[in-house]
């Protein structure tokens, strides 16, 4: 595994498969949790895929760059129908496919550890659910009004379109930071 912000690489040896299995399942499900508002998962994944397109192209991995570009195009086309008010929804099949694509780009470019940064929204969504469920089981109280975190912001009075736009902007900023981290 390549360590972001450094030239260091960690060889996991026989632990590679169980650790990567856990990471892959976690990321795929985190993308699925993000698919709760019109255009949220597809817009965030469009930006994350654009990062991998740029990164893969820069390191000479043209196969991944082309697949990431196709994912950008697919998400862009889908957003026309999935933006508020959505005419179609991707469902679990679509969101898990996007999560699988993001993981594949990361694995094939040896950059799996950049996902928490470039895909920070995915992690915020997943961590908010883990925190909410864990805290509720311990105290019978909630941390957030609702989880995943995008629903918390809705419950706080933010319109759906504002939540989606802010999450897209955060993802753009994280993608730029990720580009700086890997170049």
Automatic annotation (TrEMBL):
Which Pfam families does the record match to this protein?
Glycos_transf_4 (PF00953)
Q: Cite the binding residues for Mg(2+).
A: 32, 92
- Gene Ontology MF terms in the entry: metal ion binding; phospho-N-acetylmuramoyl-pentapeptide-transferase activity
Chief place where the protein resides = membrane
Where exactly are the transmembrane stretches of this chain?
A: 15-33, 40-58, 64-84, 96-115, 163-182
Q: Which UniProt keywords apply?
A: Magnesium, Membrane, Metal-binding, Transferase, Transmembrane, Transmembrane helix
**Name recorded for this polypeptide:** Phospho-N-acetylmuramoyl-pentapeptide-transferase
Q: Please give the organism.
A: Romboutsia weinsteinii
């Amino acid at each position: 595994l390549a360590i972001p912000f450094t030239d260091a690489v960690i060889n996991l040896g026989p632990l590679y498969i169980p650790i990567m299995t856990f990471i892959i399942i976690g990321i795929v499900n985190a993308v699925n949790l993000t698919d709760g508002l019109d255009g949220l998962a597809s817009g965030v994944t469009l930006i994350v895929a654009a990062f991998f397109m740029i990164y893969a192209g820069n390191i000479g991995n043209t196969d991944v760059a082309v697949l990431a570009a196709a994912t950008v195009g697919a998400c862009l086309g889908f957003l026309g129908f999935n933006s508020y008010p959505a005419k179609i929804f991707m469902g679990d099949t679509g969101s898990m496919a996007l999560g699988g694509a993001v993981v594949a780009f990361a694995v094939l470019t040896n950059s799996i550890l950049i996902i928490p940064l470039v895909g920070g929204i995915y992690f915020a969504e997943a961590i908010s659910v883990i925190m909410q469920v864990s805290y509720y089981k311990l105290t019978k109280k909630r941390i957030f009004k609702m989880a995943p975190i995008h629903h918390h912001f809705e419950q706080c009075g933010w319109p759906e379109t504002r939540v989606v736009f802010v999450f897209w902007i955060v993802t753009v900023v994280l993608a730029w930071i990720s580009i700086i981290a890997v170049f």
